[in-house]
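Usage

Read records sequentially. Each one opens with the input sequence:
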Amino acid sequence: MILHTPGGLVLAAQQIASALADHPGTVTAVVPHYAMSGGTLISLAADEIVIDSHSVLGPVDPQLGEYPAASLVEVARMPGDHDDRTLILADMGHKAIVQVEGFVERLLAPRMPAEQARGAAQILARGVWTHDHPLTATELERLGLPHRVGLPEEERDLMSLYPQPRGRTPAVEYVPSPSGPMPGPGRELPRGSRRR
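and closes with the structure output:
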């Protein structure tokens, strides 16, 4: 499976990761450039992660809207009075961290010793780094995650077929047309016009 993603919703990533973890065959996650956040969560379900020398994964610490869950929990622990919204968000943040950490530990448990799986899950889920922190091969090694460096040439060739867009291309192109009904089948459009 080739992963190239900035991430997404925990629910979607967890469902995909669960399906991969339950797959009876060997699953290899290939990360040519990056698989951040939810992409990392999915890759952790694989038996092996294959990365290029400069590919990165990222932390899986949950985000509540625009706020990191770990930061909300930390703010609520600070001295002083806190409004109800902050306390509620901190409670939700704590629950989100516990949920993601537990899920990551369960994903890693079949491939590493229990203590190592627990430690890696804590580091990845508790907001040790900022959410966009790139986890390189060196950091993956320190965490004990099953990976190897060296992207097969076929995957590199495949990625070259999907160049990154330069700038933002509109999803719908508006082409003005003359007033009146559109020509039907077999009738020509005025020169320079296109059908909508």
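Summary fields computed downstream for this record:
- Helices lie at 10-22, 38-43, 69-77, 84-108, 114-125, 137-143, 153-160.
- The first helix runs from residue 10 to 22.
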